[in-house]
Amino acid sequence: MKFIINTLVEQLINNNIIERKMKQEYFYALEVFFEKLIIYISILIISVYLDLLIPTLIFLVFFCGLRSRTGGYHLNTYLKCFIGTVGIYVMFAKWLYPWLNKNINYIFPILFFSLVFIFTIGAVNHPNINWSKTELEETKKASRAMIFLQCISIISFTVLGVHKDCIIFATLGVMLCAILLIAAKICKQEVRE
């Protein structure tokens, strides 16, 4: 993959789209983009196999929308991240989802505790992100606004009679963000000023 990204960046430079001094930044940005794309495509392929495409799309929207604002625990290599992310999705889809499907009354306690944790912590300033103090405060505000909107959405899904699979997977997306925030705090995986 590095060869393909390097070739792409060289083409951008040769076509005067970016300056050579920006090569490393573009290489890194494209590498992260393609790594995430591979993870999401893998999850979507598995979701098609499990006949859970629509709930999985909702899970990804809720999870990615919140995760981009909260930060949280990160693994230190792409391979670990790939295995961990896809593994967590499979665990949710194969074990936690069927259990919640039979015990739907646990959805709102899970959502409530996730809301409390995310609202309390807000965001974790991971060393790879290294937000300034002002950026961190703005990110915490954005994560709190997002968790509020997502909780309102899940409650609205329930009131409107949206299929419970979608409600379960939306809640799992929120819960995973809360778990990753807590894990980052426990592992002290954050920048402190």
From TrEMBL:
Keyword Disulfide bond included in the entry's annotation: no
The transmembrane residues are 37-66, 78-97, 103-124, 145-162, 168-187
- Is this entry keyworded Transmembrane helix? yes
**What are the record keywords, sorted?**
Cell membrane, Hydrolase, Membrane, Protease, Quorum sensing, Transmembrane, Transmembrane helix
SMART domains linked to this entry: AgrB
Protein name as annotated: Accessory gene regulator B family protein
